[in-house]
Design brief:
disordered N terminus, 8% strand, two-stranded parallel sheet, single chain, mainly alpha
Length: 232
C-alpha cells in the first residue's frame, strides 16, 4: 500500500468484507482530513438520511449560519464526499447530495508518511469522537421520540449491552456474523419505504475494554456504566 492509502503499482486493492466500492467510501489518510471535523460528518449524515439540500436549509436545520454550512459543504466536495445535485435545475443556491451510501473506517487503511503519522492519528481520534457523539445523539432522539410512536413500534425498540470474553478472532467473526444478518434486510431508501414501515436505526459497536479485576479496585458502590448484562 502506498503512503496515501492507494495501492502501489501492480498491487490489487483489498476491501473490508461487505464494502461496495461502487456505493461506499473507505477513508484513507487524505480523505480523513476532509471528514474529521464533527460538523462535516453531521452534514454528510443529513444529506444521506434526509436527501439533497442547500447550505441555507442545512443551516436552519442545525441552527448555524449559512456561511458555516456553505464552507464545510465545499470542503466535503473538495474531498469527494458530496457532489452538486444538478437535477434540481437552475437555482440561486447550490443543492448538494452525498456521493456515497456510507463511510467505512479501517485503521489499516490510514498508512501515511512518518512525518504525518501524528496528524493522522489525531484526525482519526477526532473523527471517531464525532461518530460516537452522533450515535449518542441518535439514542437520545429515540428515547425522546419513542413515547409518541405507535405501540407496536415502542415494543420493538431495543437498547441492550453484554460484556463478552473474546479473542481477536472471536471478535472478528462476531462482527462478520452481525453484518451477514444485517445484509438480509433492505437498506433505507426514502423512495421505497413500505406502507407499514419506517426508518429504523440499528447501531452495533464492538469495543475491546480494559477492566481491572475487582480485587484491584477499592470497595464501594458500582459505577453503573453498563458493564453488566442490561436490556431496555
Amino acid at each position: 500500500m502506498s503512503g496515501d492509502g492507494e495501492p502501489a503499482a501492480g498491487e490489487e486493492r483489498t476491501y473490508p468484507r461487505g464494502f461496495d466500492p461502487e456505493r461506499d467510501v473507505l477513508l484513507d489518510a487524505r480523505s480523513l482530513r476532509g471528514i474529521a471535523h464533527p460538523l462535516r460528518n453531521q452534514l454528510l449524515g443529513l444529506l444521506r438520511h434526509e436527501g439533497p439540500s442547500t447550505a441555507t436549509k442545512l443551516a436552519q436545520r442545525l441552527g448555524l449560519s449559512s456561511a458555516a454550512t456553505s464552507y464545510h459543504l465545499r470542503q466535503l466536495a473538495e474531498y469527494g464526499f458530496v457532489v452538486e445535485d444538478e437535477g434540481r435545475g437552475k437555482t440561486r443556491e447550490r443543492w448538494w447530495k452525498s456521493a456515497h451510501r456510507s463511510t467505512w473506517f479501517d485503521r489499516s487503511m490510514l498508512t501515511s508518511d512518518a512525518d504525518d503519522e501524528g496528524e493522522t492519528d489525531a484526525l482519526a481520534e477526532e473523527y471517531l469522537r464525532g461518530v460516537a457523539d452522533k450515535y449518542i445523539e441518535t439514542i437520545r432522539a429515540h428515547v425522546a421520540e419513542s413515547p409518541s410512536m405507535p405501540v407496536e413500534w415502542q415494543q420493538v425498540g431495543n437498547m441492550s449491552d453484554v460484556l463478552l470474553a473474546l479473542t481477536p478472532d472471536d471478535a472478528t467473526r462476531l462482527v462478520e456474523e452481525i453484518q451477514d444478518v444485517i445484509r438480509r434486510y433492505p437498506r433505507y431508501d426514502a423512495t421505497r419505504v413500505p406502507t407499514d414501515g419506517r426508518p429504523v436505526s440499528l447501531q452495533y459497536q464492538l469495543m475491546p475494554r480494559t477492566i481491572r479485576p475487582a480485587a484491584d479496585q477499592e470497595s464501594g458502590p458500582g459505577d453503573g456504566d453498563g458493564d453488566g448484562d442490561e436490556e431496555a
